[in-house]
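Is nickel (II) ion placement plausible here? Inputs below.
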Amino acid sequence: MSLRVENLTVRLPLPNGSVVHAASDVSLDVPRGTITALVGESGCGKSILASAVMDQLPAGARRSGSITVTTPQGALDVFAGEPFRGLHAALVPQSAATHLTPVRTARSQLDETITTLGSPRTSDELAVRVGLDPSALDCYPHELSGGMAQRVAVAGALAGDPSVIVADEPTASLDRALTDRVLGLLRECADDGAAVLLITHDLASLVRTGVADRLAVMYASRLMETGPAAEVFDDPWHDYTRDLLGALPSRGLHPLPGSPPQLTDLPDDCVYFLRRPETRQSGGPTALVQVGDRSYRTLREVA
Ligand SMILES: Nc1ncnc2c1ncn2[C@@H]1O[C@H](COP(=O)(O)OP(=O)(O)OP(=O)(O)O)[C@@H](O)[C@H]1O
Ligand code: NI
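Reply from A.M.:
I modeled the complex. Tokens:
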């Protein structure tokens, strides 16, 4: 019941000949019973990592490395071509509204998921699990509020009792109260034994709810820092993490300098220094260095 990403590199060739560096040597462990939050600015590669975990990379993607989902029945290589989606690993999509078909009730869509997966669950049982009155399932998606639709999507993800849950911006369109409910739901899934990868750029909610056990910070296709969430929030080691946290309203709303880089044909060097020349940190090949249960990407000092 865990997720292990090892040395995952994903390259997306574009028609114009350039190549998007969507993930570069990413290694990440999400043990059972825990939530790891993957954060970073728009376009840094978070959703590509989610797609890789679900073996749903865009056509033409080149990848190396491995992703293993450990289930009660054993370890499963997600790139081996065996069916596993929904059963061993499930995705909670960003927008339930676009995920659900408008012409059928929530119940009929949930029932279809249950049947396809051969799950012993019932749609009423799943509705209750996610805090929905079962009668809400008889609505069409447009009759549901954003928060209710999102809970239907979570119910669908839970239908197969997955060992691994990947939630890609599951609270993007929700207000604070509903955000906290959906995050609370993911917490319950983890407490029941799932390994949860929560992708979000809503750091404020993470700080407020304390829902994440661990934090992984991504920048320009690479992990910059990982560690216990509370420790990283209190004492970020990498400049990028520090700047990202400094942009929070509770920490002074200091905007990050510049804008995120294009991910086409990135150098092997660490690129955050390009946005922060005053840090006097140069590029040069970098590495993620492990110190206890934390890790951070090293930068070479300018001599
Ligand atoms: N199908 C695709 N073909 C080519 N490039 C893509 C494709 N999907 C994503 N990319 C590129 O890969 C990089 C990573 O994208 P990704 O969607 O993973 O970012 P993200 O961190 O999830 O951003 P956001 O927070 O906005 O969702 C971006 O540069 C994006 O433009
Ligand atoms: Ni994304």
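Short version: The pocket of adenosine-5'-triphosphate (ligand 1) is lined by residues 12, 20, 22, 40, 42-48, 58, 201, 263 (CB under 6 Å).
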